[in-house]
UniProtKB/TrEMBL annotation:
It comes from the Eukaryota. Transmembrane segments: none annotated. InterPro entries: DNA/RNA_pol_sf, RVT_2. This is Reverse transcriptase Ty1/copia-type domain-containing protein. SUPFAM superfamilies: DNA/RNA polymerases. It holds the Pfam family RVT_2. PANTHER family: GAG-POL-RELATED RETROTRANSPOSON, RNA-DIRECTED DNA POLYMERASE, PROTEIN KINASE RLK-PELLE-DLSV FAMILY. It comes from Anisodus tanguticus.
Length: 499
């Protein structure tokens, strides 16, 4: 606590002033934690002084608070590009990141507990720099970091504001920012070291070495590329729910009709249900095979039933049997974009809305996927499938723009595989048939992309429609086949060292 307090004083985080009358003064508190290694072993003790942002008043001592964080698809894409170009991948951490940011608002805080100034016990802290817990702290830190890296030659991506791009001739570097965690990849070791030196001159940086443990995700290098795993995170969820001795199951969801909002009696502990459903969402970062199952149980967080909790327990049993599984990224060409899309027409028993799902590959690497209920009703399976095509074409447009910004131009059209012949005809036929008049005009941007040669919508037999795993429950044999197609597998034999 003393070290933390002295660091704040040395940083000139605040100054003591007499308390003005009629102003809002926020509280502060000490937070204690144990930092752990990627294997769960103890690393060090940690303490932090945190302000109580809940008592801040919008428009008085805080304004805009939104701060962007890097998207999972961007992380997968940049890692794939680094692998294809054999670039070093490094990770950094900014010490006390929020304390580097200057505040524009006037904020008063009570003196820290245990460190009240004996000469001025009734004074308050007038904050000069951002502090953890303030509502605007993440935004202030992002602005501070973005402003600095722009002075050393980086530009932020318009497709993802948390991706920063550096290019000088043939030299390329990318920075991925997630609050105070940074992934840095550069076209050469000399450029990487130069950028790290410049960042260290401005911020208190901690060099964590080659990428190995980022946002709770273990990253290991093998002979073919990278293996991303959240085994520790998944095991913690199972242990917290006291199901570590449960029997495993081969699929996360059965092949029965979808769950209904009125299925069974109300569940006795809704908080537990919501906690598990929320925790599972982050697990889809490296386990796309559970995306559909998680999407289904999240529909009922407002009023969970016993049947819904049984569905969550099935997911836990599946995860228990696949703890070692993770997402593989391989050394692969980045010259092609291939996607699969599918829709489960009228699958929701309560609203009869359809579920759309897609997955997108950059070369042989899975970089983006989704399972989402459609916003409106579809009057035919062709319409439901066509809306699914529109969703994946929209995602492919975003991804192509991202690749263009990182100087990886895709010359070929994006291939979109769909198993519905009518939807394929609609994507290329400009004649307005009677059965398509009710479809919103903005859906037909697919035709424009097809006409321009940016997209080709092709047919794939249902047996090879990988996107089925994102729209419905499947038999175990088919599920395991599609899971393997998504590169979700056991870890291979690891090489010495990491990236």
């Amino acid at each position: 606590m003393t070290d933390e307090y002295n660091a704040l004083i040395d940083n000139k985080t605040w100054e003591l002033v007499p308390r003005p009358s009629g102003i809002n003064v926020i509280r502060s508190m000490w937070i204690f934690a144990h930092k752990e290694n990627s294997d769960g072993s103890f690393a060090r003790y940690k303490v932090r002084l945190v302000s109580d942002g809940k008592t801040q008043q919008v428009g008085i001592d805080c304004g805009e608070t939104f701060s962007p964080v890097v998207k999972p698809a961007t992380i997968h894409t940049v890692l794939s590009l680094a692998l294809s170009k054999a670039c070093p991948i490094h990770q950094l951490n900014v010490k006390n990141a929020f304390l580097h940011s200057d505040l524009k608002e006037t904020i008063y805080m009570h003196q820290p507990l245990g460190f009240r100034d004996p000469n001025h016990p009734h004074h308050v802290c007038l904050l000069k720099k951002s502090l953890y817990g303030l509502k605007q702290s993440p935004r202030a830190w992002y602005t501070r970091f973005a402003d600095y890296v722009s002075t050393i030659g980086f530009t932020h991506s318009r497709s993802d504001n948390s991706l920063f791009i550096y290019r000088r001739g043939s030299s390329l570097a990318y920075i991925l920012l997630y609050v105070n965690d940074i992934i840095l990849t550069a076209s050469s070791d000399a450029l990487r070291r130069s950028i790290m030196t410049m960042l260290s001159s401005e911020f208190a940086m901690k060099d964590l070495g080659p990428l190995s443990y980022f946002l709770g995700i273990v990253v290991k290098r093998h002979s073919g590329g990278l293996f991303l795993s959240q085994r520790k995170y998944a095991a913690e969820i199972i242990e917290r729910d006291v199901m570590s001795s449960c029997k495993s199951t081969s699929t996360p969801v059965d092949a029965k009709p979808n769950l209904s909002a009125a299925a069974g009696a109300p569940y006795e502990d809704p908080t537990r249900y919501r906690s598990l459903a929320g925790a599972f969402q982050y697990l889809t970062f490296t386990k796309p095979d559970i995306t559909y199952a998680i999407q289904q149980v999240c529909f009922f967080m407002h009023d969970p039933r016993v049947e819904h909790m049984n569905a969550i327990k099935r997911i836990i049993r599946y995860i228990q049997g696949t703890l070692d599984y993770g997402l593989h990224l391989y050394h692969s060409s980045t010259s092609t974009l291939v996607s699969y899309t599918d829709a489960d027409w009228g699958g929701c028993p309560d609203t009869r809305r359809s579920t759309s799902g897609y997955c997108m590959f950059l070369g042989s690497n899975l970089v983006s996927w989704s399972a989402k209920r459609q916003a409106t009703l579809s009057r035919s399976s062709a319409e439901a499938e066509y809306r699914g095509v529109a969703n994946v074409v929209s995602e492919s447009c975003w991804l192509r723009n991202l690749l263009l910004e990182v100087h990886c131009l895709i010359q070929k059209a994006t291939l979109v595989y769909c198993d519905n012949i009518s939807a394929i005809y609609l994507s290329g036929n400009s004649v307005q048939h009677q059965r398509t008049k009710h479809i919103e005009i903005n859906i037909h941007f697919v035709r424009e992309k097809v006409a321009r040669g940016h997209v080709r919508v092709c047919h794939v037999p249902s047996r090879y429609q990988i996107a089925d795993i994102f729209t419905k429950g499947l038999p175990s044999v088919l599920f395991e086949d599609f899971r393997d197609s998504l590169s979700v597998r056991r870890p291979p034999a690891m090489t010495a060292g990491v990236c």
